[in-house]
Structures are given as C-alpha cells and as structure tokens.
C-alpha cells in the first residue's frame, strides 16, 4: 500500500531537560534547588517513556472508533491500517500491523482462536475502485503468512473483476458500505453517512 511519510521530532525531551537545567543553575542557592526540580522532571519523563506510548495508542484508537467515514477518507494509507486495528480488536482479534516495506501483500495480521487471517488495506480517493491486484496480493500472501483466510478492506468499492476473483479464491471483500456498518456496530458514536447494517456473524 502506498504510504505518505510523516517526519516527527522524537528527541525533544532531552534538549528540554538541558535547557531547564541551564536556566536553574544561576538561580540555585544550593544543590537541593536543582535536584528537587530535576527529580520531578525525571519522574515524569520516565513515566512518559514507560507509559506514554501505550497511552497515546489508546487515545488514538478511541479517536478512530469515534470517526466518521468522511474522516476515514482523509487518512493516509498507513493511518488507515491503524484505523482498522481497533475495529478488528473489538471483534476479538489480536491485531498486528506489518512493516511498511516488504509486507508481501498483508498490511494487518489477525489472530483469533488459533486461526490467522491477513488483511490488505486500501484507502483511496473518491471515484477510485479496487481492482484484481489487491485480491491477487492477498492470495499470494496467504502461504507466506501461513494464514487460513484473507480479506481486502477499503473505503471505496471493488470492480466486478475483483469481486469475481475474490469469490473464486475465498477472499472476503469489505467495501465502503460494509466498513460503515462495522464503524456503526463497533464505534463509539453514530456515523453521519448512510449505514447498511450487516448482522451476519
């Protein structure tokens, strides 16, 4: 899947600590004036390193679960993969996002009751349909990941050729309408767009 790269500064905290230390030195009357603030800062910095990432993942998943389909349309390919994670976890799957390079046609790996499934995620703009290539990638990845089933999930729709190929190879297709149904069923608030409920287990 094509992905848009985002560059983020992951090393802000250490320079910030040094700046605070330099600012405190001229005003310090004794070592306690420096040690106490540094201990407090160190405590929160350590807590951030230990719990910050899981906490941010929880916040991100909650935000995704409360998204509308129009919000999904604005996601990058990589963000769309992570958007799908809480939807599948709500269904009882253990979910793993594969590496961006060399994923061999699987963007997510789902595990449930000893069974493994792979997911190809396709997030495209308006008017774009998903063709047979996405289905072919899933079929080819089944053996590589030792998965029993595969699916393609998109915020758009599939071509007739893709639907025929998926049916012939037992690959599940989740198009825009079914994705909205999942968002409605497992999300945390109603969806603005048209909802087509799918009650099949």
UniProtKB/TrEMBL annotation:
TM stretches of this protein: 12-28, 34-52
Pfam families given in the database record: Mrr_cat (PF04471)
Domain of life of the source: Bacteria
Keyword Membrane attached: yes
Residues annotated as domain Restriction endonuclease type IV Mrr: 75-183
Record bears the keyword Membrane: yes
UniProt entry keywords in alphabetical sequence: Membrane, Transmembrane, Transmembrane helix
SUPFAM superfamilies from the UniProt entry: Restriction endonuclease-like
Protein name: Restriction endonuclease type IV Mrr domain-containing protein
């Amino acid at each position: 899947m094509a992905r848009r790269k985002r560059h983020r500064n992951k090393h802000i905290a250490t320079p910030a600590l040094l700046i605070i230390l330099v600012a405190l030195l001229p005003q310090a009357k004794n070592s306690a004036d420096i040690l106490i603030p540094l201990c407090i800062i160190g405590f929160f910095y350590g807590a951030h390193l230990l719990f910050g990432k899981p906490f941010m993942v929880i916040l991100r998943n909650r935000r995704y679960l409360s998204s509308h389909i129009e919000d999904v349309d604005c996601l990058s390919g990589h963000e769309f993969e992570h958007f799908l994670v809480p939807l599948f976890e709500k269904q009882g799957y253990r979910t793993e996002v594969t590496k961006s390079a060399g994923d061999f046609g699987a963007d997510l790996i789902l595990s449930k009751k000893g069974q493994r499934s792979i997911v190809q995620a396709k997030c495209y703009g308006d008017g774009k349909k998903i063709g047979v290539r996405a289905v072919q990638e899933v079929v080819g990845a089944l053996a590589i990941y030792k998965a029993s089933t595969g699916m393609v999930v998109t915020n758009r729709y599939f071509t007739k050729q893709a639907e025929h190929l998926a049916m012939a190879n037992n690959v599940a297709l989740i198009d825009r309408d079914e994705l909205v149904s999942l968002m409605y069923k497992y999300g945390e608030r109603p969806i603005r767009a048209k909802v087509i409920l799918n009650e099949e287990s």
